[in-house]
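Summary for the steering committee. One of the milestones for this cycle was to obtain a three-dimensional model of the protein with iron/sulfur cluster bound, which we needed before selecting residues for the alanine scan. The sequence and ligand used are listed below.
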Amino acid sequence: MSVTTAAPAAFHLMAKPTGAVCNLDCHYCFFLKKEALYPGSAFRMSDEVMERHIRETIEAHQGVPEVTIAWQGGEPTLMGLDFYRRAMEAERRYQRPGTTIQNTIQTNGALLDDEWCTFLRANKFLVGISVDGPREMHDAYRRDKGGGPTFDKAIRAVRLLQAQQVEYNILCTVNAVNSRHPLEVYRFYRDELGARYIQLIPVVERVNETGYQEGDSVTERSVRPEQYGRFLIEIFDEWVRRDVGRMFVQVFDGVLASWIRGYSSLCIFRPTCGDGVALEHNGDLYSCDHFVEPKHLLGNIRETPLLDLVTSEKQRKFGQDKQDTLPRYCRECEFLFTCHGECPKNRFLRTPDGEPGLNYLCAGLKAFFQHVDRPMKIMAGLMRRGLPASDVMQVLAAEAARFAAAAARAGRNDPCPCGARDEEGKPIKVKKCHGN
Ligand code: SF4
Ligand code: SF4
């Protein structure tokens, strides 16, 4: 039985109108495996479920000025444009005065054409489009059903979106291949695609979903933790020196929020979960997009009001478990305030003292947080004084010039005046740092 408690101020629902069904066959896609959840299903959301979702999502957000309706997959464009035209009619029917509705859609872009883009633009959709970097990196794992490459289709879709001025962001899955080329990936998006909004999502695929196995915990496609850290650090260093305020990298903004106001804008870096649910094609509602599995089924919106499911004791416990299962190693971590153990789906390692529940990405995340601590503090300080975060670029440039001048006066084998230390904590010499 569901227990209705106070509704969260806003919850985020990802609707999967085609369930896990997709027209591509990307090697790392965790949703394809979920097709097995609904054997024999046609994987088409009925208008009844679509309409109920829209009505109840809008009703549940009373007093919230903007409601997000998010379409995801699988590949949501497989539903066809008419489904979304009917969804827009339903939104107009239930929209309240003073409330705006923001639709988002995550797509591989294969089916996008002029008609789609006209529709997306007219209805002010925000489109997330999956591109994993330049051609050879994108095609490493993003393959079609016949095993063929998909880069050209993805880029064609980006160009169509740009031509029709549809708002879009790039979703990049960070995997074993592209993680070795952070600057190439970032510069490709910035300089060749002309993108401004980027999401970086680490691929962490477990070999054994039911338990931790020493030595073979993730597939070879998965990004290695240290590599993930280096990937973020290298992109951050380029971004913080020349692109702040011009390029928006979701993970950097999400982390900066913790330095500014003490909590992140990203669920993975918040203390608890529970505000983001996933709706399957048949009305089944799950605790999270990353936990679409029987154990985390909350119920079906055709049988139980959506708000009752979102505010149920089961969902509350799911959210609270993130905090309650944190190992001591995390609780005592200097970066707990911004990390909170990251997403529970990635917590399958043991801590150095043997406690379960350490995040697989910990080593990389910690290196990243350590590296960005100072520039984050500078940006947070600027913003608290009402100045733009982008002023950090001038601060760092002036500082670099000062250190370079001091390094020029010092001997090449002296410790660098900037105070940098290597991984073992030893001072780095001038010749390898600002004297270089
Ligand atoms: S399980 Fe992971 S993705 Fe889901 S709400 Fe929690 S942190 Fe976010
Ligand atoms: S950086 Fe590592 S130890 Fe620190 S909170 Fe995150 S996962 Fe835990």
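Key point for the committee: Residues 329-330, 333, 335-336, 339, 341-342, 359, 362, 365-366 surround iron/sulfur cluster (ligand 2) (CB under 6 Å).
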